[in-house]
Amino acid sequence: MKYRWPLFWGLMLLISVTASCQTEKSRKDNQAMEQEMGKGEFLTWGEVMRYARKGSPPPDRRVEKSDAEWRSLLTEEEYRITRQKGTERAFTGAYCESFVPGRYACRCCGTELFDAEEKFESGTGWPSFTQPLTNNVVKYEMDKSFGMVRVEILCNVCDAHLGHVFPDGPGLGGLRFCTNSASLRRIETGTNESN
Ligand SMILES: [Zn+2]
Fold first, then answer.
1. Is 178 marked active-site?
2. 136 CA to middle of ligand 1, Å?
3. Percentages helix, strand, coil for the chain, rounded to the nearest 5?
4. What spacing in Å lies between the alpha carbon of 26 and ligand 1's midpoint?
5. What range does the domain containing 105 cover?
6. Rounded mean pLDDT of 94-110?
7. What pLDDT score was predicted for residue 9?
8. How far is the CA of 47 from the centre of ligand 1 (A)?
9. Given this model, what pLDDT does residue 114 score?
10. Least confidently predicted of 29-38, 107-116, 144-153
11. Are 15 and 60 in a shared domain?
């Protein structure tokens, strides 16, 4: 009798955890881990989908230029990828296998988008990150081209095409931001914050 009740409540807990919504559970796990690590907020797939469907958070500023202006400022390859939603060939980009410290800014407008600390080796041949620098530097849009449903990522300041985001990343948020090197420019941050 003495050991029966703990066993009963243990079983009940197991049943309730198993029965609970998996997404809600992982979200709570993530929140708990986040508090444990003292980290700031991080983006999850649920939030990415909400942004893609209902609109991303407003950016701090906007940069808008004419098509001719962008053409004059970018190389042909950069223009094709950032302004015409192109994709560079896998394993050909400058930052594909680079893991030096720094930040990655938008090639078009210079807005800082990703920190090198969030960069990881995805094996895809494109620079991959687990999180953006802040929640409002990247814009999320549903992309139904090529018979697939994907979430396109763009610079939220100037609408440059960056790549796509997928829910199979290794970080706490479980995200993989798959970008083109041609959409980014790495900037040295040194020991002090540059901004
Ligand atoms: Zn930009």
1. yes
2. 12
3. 35, 20, 45
4. 32
5. 41-187
6. 95
7. 61
8. 21
9. 98
10. 29-38
11. no
* Residue of 109, 155, 158, 178 marked catalytic: 178
Query: Rounded to the nearest whole angstrom, what is the distance from the C-alpha of residue 20 to the centroid of ligand 1?
Result: 41
Domain match, 107 and 26 both:
no
pTM, entire model: 0.77
Question: How many C-alpha atoms does 54 have within 13 Å on its Cβ side?
Answer: 6
Q: Please indicate, yes or no, if residue 1 is contained in any of the structural domains.
A: yes
Place of tokens 């708990």: 32
Question: Which percentage of the chain shows pLDDT scores above 70?
Answer: 76
Mark whether 75 and 169 lie in a shared domain.
yes
Q: How many Å lie between the centroid of ligand 1 and the Cα of residue 160?
A: 5
Residue 98: Cβ within 10 Å count:
14
Classify residue 62: in a domain, yes or no: yes
- Give the model's confidence band at 15: pLDDT under 50 very low, under 70 low, under 90 confident, else very high: very low
Q: How far apart are CA 88 and CA 86, in angstroms?
A: 7
Same domain as 145, residue 59: yes
The number of domains in the chain is 2
